[in-house]
Amino acid sequence: MNIFIISIFFFWRVFLFFVAWTGEKFLPFSPRFPYSDILLITSHLPSWLWSFANFDGVHYLTIAKSSYSAQFTQVFFPLYPILVGIISKLFPILNLITVGLIVSNLSFFLSLEIFFKLLKLDYKKSDIKIILLFLISFPTSFYFGSFYSESVFLFFILCSFYLARTKRWWLSGFFGAAASATRLVGIFLLPALLWEWHQNEFKVKSSKYKVSNFHSLLSIFRSPITYLVPLGLIIYMLYLQINFGDFLYFWHSQPIFGAERSGSSIILLPQVIVRYIRILILVDYTQEIYWIALLELLITVFAFTALIIGHIRKVRLSYLIFSWLTVLTPTLTGTFSSMPRYVLLALPMYIVLGLIKNRLSKICILAVFISLLLFLTVLFTRGHWVG
């Protein structure tokens, strides 16, 4: 077991609980989401614990407890709450919130281990440690330790990439299927992993023999990745059609959750940027919505910039393919809402930061990240929307 990973995970987890505990002494709980009074406060857990199930956490809690009985919760993919529900039945003495937090935090710890192994294939150990520090200190990394699917999804995609890099394609496809049953963007492992397949299985062989582009394309049909990765999404879509009469219920329900999301049409990125510029011009800066919009815009621009630099620094293309599709897709609903959380999965972003040569620059960025992490954790745990 990697002592460095144990140390940074333990410090990160204790730090966030301490921040939540301290925050409740200075800021009243003002929930901007429903059901906190009947699902969280009544749990009899300390508020610094149950507050990590705020916002979407209550919906995952509902699904884990009683499946999709609440209308429109179908926007949340099933595998994470299914895992929480199963483990809760195995350990009925534990509160469901506690089980969800254990699943999330254990998944994040294992993700750090897998990410370390994945990075070792390309980078020095000293660089890897900095990359992991940027990951755990990212301003919204508290979502990895919350009653959210982020950490489980991160674990699945990292396992899938690592197994692909080590040429264990069936297992890679299996974890890819688990990812696409956890989040919609899990399906974007398909093009990313097929690129790995082409590089590792087909390109090596074609270097010995002359092979046409047509046969190169056909090679993807020999890969188990092609058939396994979409399975999670396909099974969920069939479930939605059978039970609710709509294959795309998870997409069509998006507008119900606010932020002026579109569930029936695609909004292009320039239109979203113009919308945010208008918000920053027209909304009074003393209003909370102004600062939320600014946070969403700045983190989105930061992530896009880091991915562009990732191409310049020659970060592995499969990671970039997955990350670009993952961060661009949510913007098609017409908003950057939740982008501070969605960009957490843009793995090249941390690699680019970790490879910065100037030591002072890295320290300054880490200091800014940790300061924002502290501030945003307090706001989130006290019921304020931060993405």
UniProtKB/TrEMBL annotation:
Q: Keyword set for this entry?
A: Endoplasmic reticulum, Glycosyltransferase, GPI-anchor biosynthesis, Membrane, Transferase, Transmembrane, Transmembrane helix
- Keyword Oxidoreductase in annotation: no
**GO biological process per UniProt:** GPI anchor biosynthetic process
**MF term (GO), any:** GPI mannosyltransferase activity
One Pfam family hit: Mannosyl_trans2
Which pathway is recorded for this entry? Answer: Glycolipid biosynthesis; glycosylphosphatidylinositol-anchor biosynthesis
Give the way it sits in the membrane: Multi-pass membrane protein
Question: Where does the record say this protein resides?
Answer: Endoplasmic reticulum membrane
Name of the protein in question:
Glycosyltransferase RgtA/B/C/D-like domain-containing protein
Q: Which organism is it from?
A: Candidatus Gottesmanbacteria bacterium RIFCSPLOWO2_01_FULL_39_12b
